[in-house]
Amino acid sequence: MSQKVQPLKKLSGQVCSDLEFLFTDIDDTITLDGMMPAETLESVYMLDKAGIKVILVTGRPAGWCDYFARMWPVAGIVGENGAFYFSYNRKKKRMERVYLVSESERRANRLRLNLLGEKILSSVPGCRISADQPFRIADLAIDISEDVEPLGKEEVKRICGIIEEHGAEYKISSIHINCWYGTYDKLTCFDRFLSNFTGGTLADYQDRLIYCGDSPNDEPMFKTLENTVAVANIEKYLDSLEYLPAYITDGKGGHGFAELTHHILEKRNGID
């Protein structure tokens, strides 16, 4: 871990002025203590009004993603850790749903995930299948702190070991362990979204996008993208990360996201 995280105030006016896309995680990044602060939704509206396209990125299920894409002023949402993106065309009143795995593959994978879930529940006391599992299309979410008492490091390690034994992919968030079969991830889905939306790639837009996150499952973005921001609650994970965010907010969760929004808009308006 050679790089150093800088305070948000170091994020340059040039980056803020050039910004076209802001990708952001949801849980514990734009939420706070499990709820969505009013200033989060206000911030998304402010960014949209400024011409900055917000794309939500989450491990949450397809059912949730349809709601966010339809009801929030966002350009799209990447769901279930990159299994798909949804984007609602308000003029045509049409939801675009793009999946990175075919329907037949998803059906086959679901049978394997069901068996994996049974193995995890029988092997690790205290964990549960997440309450939002019925609304998922492509993955399995194990609750490690949302609606259960937080599991310890050894229990989390044991769950991850079982997932690896079964040949599945996984990511650990602040509330769930999400696992799936397939070679996709959030970055793969980012790239597909940008390609379909603009004709460009992540590499083309490196200097025109920001990613905001809060936990170890955001590390691939911290590794690959140039302009990354984490809200303050990532501090408890910093010693365990190989790749760090470039900048960190003072505020936690949704308060930190609002802080980022105000910083971007002030810099775009030429306010130091």
Describe the structure concisely.
With 272 residues, the chain is an alpha/beta fold.
Number of separate helices: 8
Instruction: Output the strand order for the largest sheet.
Output: 1-13-12-11-2-3-4-5-6
What does the largest sheet look like?
Answer: 9 strands, mixed
Structural class: alpha/beta
Give the full name of the CATH homologous superfamily of the largest domain.
Answer: HAD superfamily/HAD-like
| CATH-derived architecture of the largest domain | 3-Layer(aba) Sandwich
Overall strand count: 13
One letter per element, helices H and strands E, the order comes to EHEHEHEEEHEEHEEHEHEEH
- Shape type: globular
Average pLDDT works out at 96
Strand content: 15-25%
**Estimated helix fraction:** 25-40%
Q: Can you put this structure into words, describing what you see?
A:
- It contains eight helices and 13 strands.
- It has helices spanning 13-18, 38-49, 62-71, 103-123, 153-165, 186-198, 219-224, 253-268; strands spanning 6-7, 21-25, 53-57, 76-79, 84-89, 94-99, 128-129, 140-143, 169-172, 176-180, 209-213, 228-230, 247-248.
- The strands form two sheets. A nine-stranded mixed beta sheet has the order 1-13-12-11-2-3-4-5-6, sandwiched between helices. Strands 7-8-10-9 form a four-stranded antiparallel beta sheet.
- The longest helix has 21 residues, at 103-123.
- It is globular and about 55 Å long.
Write the layout of secondary structure elements.
Layout: E1 6-7, H1 13-18, E2 21-25, H2 38-49, E3 53-57, H3 62-71, E4 76-79, E5 84-89, E6 94-99, H4 103-123, E7 128-129, E8 140-143, H5 153-165, E9 169-172, E10 176-180, H6 186-198, E11 209-213, H7 219-224, E12 228-230, E13 247-248, H8 253-268
Helix pairs in contact: 2-8, 4-5
